[in-house]
Amino acid sequence: MLSDNKILPNIGFGNIKFGVAMDVFVEKYGEPEEVDTIGEDEDYATTVLHYWEQSLSIFFVGVSNPVLTGIETDHPDSMLFGEKIMDKSKEDIIALMKKNGLSSYDEGDDEFVAENEIIRVSYEESMMDFFFQDNQLIFMNFGVMVDDNGNIEKV
What we know:
Helix content: 10-25%
Order of helices and strands: EEEHEEEEEEHEHEEEEE
Distance between the termini: 28 Å
């Protein structure tokens, strides 16, 4: 599925690009191992395609024409700004982000984080969330915002 494991902020992950329609994605990359749906109202719906063997979950937003808006990964070879990031410490990730011009972050403690003794570090500008347990990165997600027509918006 992946040509490489490079995280490209606001663009995609390797050869997987944000903004592609769900049906086009599935045709190109194959059926997922599992599908979840979040928020099934008329105006907003999120469909998550899980490719567990690839260490990927792909998020699509939209009702009539869902488009790819987010990616979550715990792939051990995930690269960000030229460095492998899985298992790095919170301090290492914060330093890597700062070195690449992203110094403003927020530490969250939502219900999931509290229940699982996980620390979340979020960068709104690049729409990235890093999740740490025992001070090691265990997974991260990143994405883009889209308008009602599925067009990518600038953050």
